[in-house]
Amino acid sequence: MSALVRSVSVAAPLALLAAYTMLWQGEREAADPVVQAKGEAVASPIPRQYRALVDMTAQQAAEVTTGQAAQAQNDELRFAHSAIAAAAPFHALMSAGEDRKRALHCLAQAVYYEAAAEPDSGQRAVAQVVLNRVRHPAFAKTVCGVVYQRFNAAVCQFSFVCDGSLAQRPVPVLWNRAQRVAAGALEGQVEKSVGTATHYHADYVFPRWAPHLAKLAKIGAHIFYRWPGTWGLPRAFTGRYAGGEYVPAFDASHMASIAEPDIDYPPVAALPERRAANDVGGRMDPAKGWKLSIADPSRSNGALSSMLAAQEKTRTVALATDEHAVQKGQP
Length: 331
Hints:
elongated
């Protein structure tokens, strides 16, 4: 999510074509159970026609378009024509207890680190995606299990889990806001605008799985999707909350092993010139003895100075007239 991508190319491998044909026809077959990492509750079996798509979204960081090209592709990708069906309220953690406390913490983390700068509806949408995943066969059956899915792998489902963001202490005001949104979602509040969405990504990236899911809505900087076909409809969300919430400890040493990206910024002189040869454009060339000189505002002859001077002159005349009238009226 921003895992969900800050990551992911538009062309799908030829090997996936047959799987997608079956997928859109709604055929179902049993599959092997999903293998989960430690700390994740085991999810339900994945139908064979959806396996390739699940694998594609899980490896979302592998191929992704970014920048203006991504924004253009996102704009070209149309929204689904069908109506957005709202998800059912989540009531599995209504009662207080250790599981609810941990689930609230994990859900608030997702809301905060994924959408702290988003509007309220955008934060509620992120929380909705997490809870939708809890009830969908493709994902873990606990809130923390969903948020921390693949936390010990090279690519996380939510990038803040493994990109070092957790090392930053949350801003108290924003953290309290995220907690309120998370608490509301656990109490049954539903963000209808994203329906049964299980995926999203930032609008400045274009993951290769985007054209294969149903595009539902754009809120703030995030675009939300559901699974295609019957797997994205409310009746497919049959998963039961498993309990046993687990919050993995943050491992700072893991962050140290992540290599910093090499960014080779070219010198200014090497940047391409985009102006005519005789266009100095206000640039200064110290080699020619040029020096920056900014006029003192008090000595400037600008429009403001002229206006103030005119007002002062008028005021002086008015005062002189008043004084003459007073003197004339004296006995």
